[in-house]
Structure formats: C-alpha cells, structure tokens
Description:
369 residues, single chain, alpha/beta
Amino acid sequence: RVSETLKRKGFDVQGTRLTTNSFEEYVDTSGPESILKGIRDLVTIAELEGIPIIGIGPATRRSSLEVVPDIVKMSPKVSLSIPVPLITSSAKEGEMEAAAPDYERALKAAEVCRRISKETDKGIGNFQLAVSFNARPNIPYFPVGYHRGPMSFAIGCESTPVVSYAMKTYQEKGELAPNELRNMQKSIVNALEDDMKVIEEVGEEHAKRMGVTFDGIDTSVAPNPTRLSLTEGYSAAGLGKFGQSGSLCVSSIITAAVKSVNVKKAGYSGLMLPPLEDSGLANLAMETYRIQDLLLYSAVCGVGLDTVPIPGDTPKEKIAALYMDCSALAHRLDKPLTARLFPVIGKKAGEMTEFNSPHMCNGKIFSVD
C-alpha cells in the first residue's frame, strides 16, 4: 500500500522487504539440519506471499554461525548479519573497566566470509551477509536490518542523485566556493526535504490506517550503480576529487545535512560510501582512496566497509583485523557500522571484479595492508 501510494506520487520504488527478529528466536537451532529446515520453510512462505527479500536478523550462536554460508547458498532472497560486539571485563573497585571488540567473533565472521567467497559464484553470496557493529534494530537497509518491538515499517531512500544534483547545481550557479560550504549544506537539506516531507506524510498516513508504527525514514545518502554518482558532488564542492584531501570535510558536511533533514528519522541516517554500488566510487578505487580512507570517513559518516572487494587470498586474520577496526569505531563513537567484504578468488589487488549483478557495478580490488 505504501509503495503504491509513493509510485502514484512520482517516486521510483525499488521494492518492499521484510525483516524479522533474529531467526535464533523462532527456529530450532539445536543442529544444522533443523536450522536450515526452519529457514527453508520461511523462504517458502515468503515466496508464497510475494516477498522478494527477507532479513532474518543476527546469527550469534555457534550452531548458527556454522551454517551461515549454507543459508546464503539456499536462496538469494535471504539476508542476515553477524554482529561483532564489544566485550567488557568487570573491574575491581578503583580499577578501570576494560573493553575491546570480540576477536573470536570477528575471526569466525572472517571464516564465514571466506567460505562464502569460495562456495558462491565469484563470492557474490557475501552481498547477503553483513558483519555488523553496534547495529540497532529496525534499520531499513539490508543485509543488516532486523526487527524489534511491535509491528512497524520504515522507508529507506537512495538519495545520492538528489544530493549530487543539489551540489552540482549550486556550483553551476556560481554560488559555491570552498569558503561557502555551509551554503552547500543548506542546499542539500532543502533538496532532501522537498521529497522526504512527502514520503513522511505517506508513511504516517498509512501507519494510522494499518494500525502499525511508522519508524521513520532512513535519510541516508545511499547510491544506485545506475544513477548519478556521489563523486560528482564531491568534485563540485571545490576541494578535489573524492579520496583526495578535503574528502573528510565534504563527507562531514553531507552527513550533517542528512541528519538535519526535518523528518522522523530511522536507521543510519548518514552517508554511505559503498565502492561497488556507486559507479564513480568504483572508478576511483585504488586511485584516489583505499580501505583505510573509507575507515577514516566512517568516523564522520557511515556505513563502514560496505561492498569492498579484496584479494581472494586475504588471510582470515587480516579480514578479522578490519572487522576489529570497524567495531572499535562503531562502539567508540556509538554509531552503527557494517562491513560487507568480498574476497575475490583468483584476483589480486588492482585487478577488476567481474560480478554480474543488477545491484552492483565492478571496480578495482583493494589491497589489505
């Protein structure tokens, strides 16, 4: 109903998705066979109901973690996550409490990631798995999304073209210079609010009719590989190409604009920089920026290391170390981050990926130092 109303109002709707609480709460997790049967039954129900994608939430138990690759291989309709939590140790009186990301979980997640890269076509199955850090419930983006609380819905937007166009238009008017970046921020806010106010009204109206909760809009600047790239906006800011000096500043300004949009917000509501979901980011990979740059930008935006291709022979310990960095950032700054790494078997840093997916473009593989 919501999607049909939005279509009538001129919005392109990519689709609807369903998230549940963790599958560990409603599936028999006593063994691999029972877990897979429970998920298979759920997929069957989703197909009968015409649900294109279903997010089954976090996998945390040892028995669940062992079968994550098998769940991914079962159906492209299923998405899930592996959280890497922060572990704290109780301190004696007068001593400092110690805390660090769970390395054992990070290492297990790395093993799962590597196995998926070997057991699915070119490792495409890693598109369905997020390793998550401090992720809250009810984020409308997959694969990290999972549900908590009463029945509700949220709306996620692919607003990168809107943001880039607002930045480029401002530049073309001759009104944008590096010392006037605050005006660019206002331009972004105005452009986003024009659309999102309409979306919010639709959401609130249908929530009342259906008797459910409208969680809000994830105002994140999320890209689409076939639309205008966010890198166009970065160049228009006048501080150089994406990845060059000044990119951290522009990332912070865009994030501030997104968080200033005056609508009910949900999820990340930040800036997303996934190299394989934005053609401009893909073209500049390993030229103007690397993995450590994405981690740096994640300190002022999001979403972490999303759709990042790495060499197929990357050891699990190095993958786990990247997860530990993400987890440290997420918990230190109290923000949700995720990682979707793609070890590409047979490929080395600097070579091109060869994915055949409507949801991703191809780009150079990043080195892991």
